[in-house]
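Quick question, first post here. What does this chain look like in 3D?
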Amino acid sequence: MRILLVEDDPQLAADLSEALSAAGFLVDHATDGDDAWFRGEIEDYALAVLDLGLPQLDGLSVLKRWRAAGRSFPVLILTARSDWTEKVEGIEAGADDYLAKPFQMGELIARARALVRRAAGLTRPILTIAGLSLDTVRMAATVDGRPVRLSQLEFRLLDLLAHNIGRAVSNGEVAEHLYGGDDSSSANAVEAVVTRLRRKVGPDIIETRRGFGYSLGGGEG
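> Answer (accepted):
Ran it through. Tokens below.
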């Protein structure tokens, strides 16, 4: 899953990027409000982690502009302030969750995963599709009860498809969530990842819908 991290503190941003990447997310990083607003306007992120105290344009203004423009991806707000009126203002502006600094990295990861699941209409961290069981917390998979060893790219692809049950995800969209780009080389790389995954999970779990993209067989979250 490709997410946007908006944080101007270099050390905290580095720590957050490392933790989120280790949890299976592909992280884009913006350091100021103007850049964050622009990125959120043109990219379809699975989630934004948004600090409120930003240079150039504050985080609350960024959020309001996104929502006014119809950008509906979930937003987790980070702030060093504890004023409850500010929290209410953030929720009313369209925030989906709120986390005050300092916080435990494990809590942020858990909240981020929960928001992504909720946006996909899923309720549990273990997703079951046909014979495939995907544990989004442990970043692990089994097929018919048999453990399957996955690379981070392979997990990311299965995770993306599992959060989009009922629709085909285009090659370009997959490339954006795996690599951050949709050029021809990334598209070719996606096909290579799909081929490797089919060897591991079986040829029928990942379907190719010509002209539309990839999907998983029907299942439940």
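The mean pLDDT is 89.
The first strand starts at residue 2 and ends at 6.
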